[in-house]
Amino acid sequence: MTFQRIVVALLVLIVAGLGAIGYFEWKMAVQVRTLMAFVEGYVFNEAVIAC
Question: Which residue from 22, 24, 20 is spatially nearest to 12, judged by alpha carbons?
């Protein structure tokens, strides 16, 4: 019974870890997308001003 509980606990920890990694990866992707949008907007405005 103890071995079975240890295996279940490890599986739960692995699933929680993968979920946390996925969440942080998603948050970073959102931040990168936002930053890229601001940079593209700035570059586009500079190009329009230069014309």
Answer: 20
Task: Write the pLDDT tens digit of every residue in 12-29.
Answer: 999 999 999 999 999 999
Radius of gyration of the chain (CA): 22
3-state secondary structure at position 47? helix
* pLDDT confidence of residue 50: 77
Q: What H or E segment, with its residue span, contains residue 50?
A: helix 2-50
Does the predicted TM-score (pTM) go above 0.70?
A: no
Block residue for tokens 């969440």: 23
Residue 38 DSSP class: H
CA dist 25 and 32 (Å) reads: 10
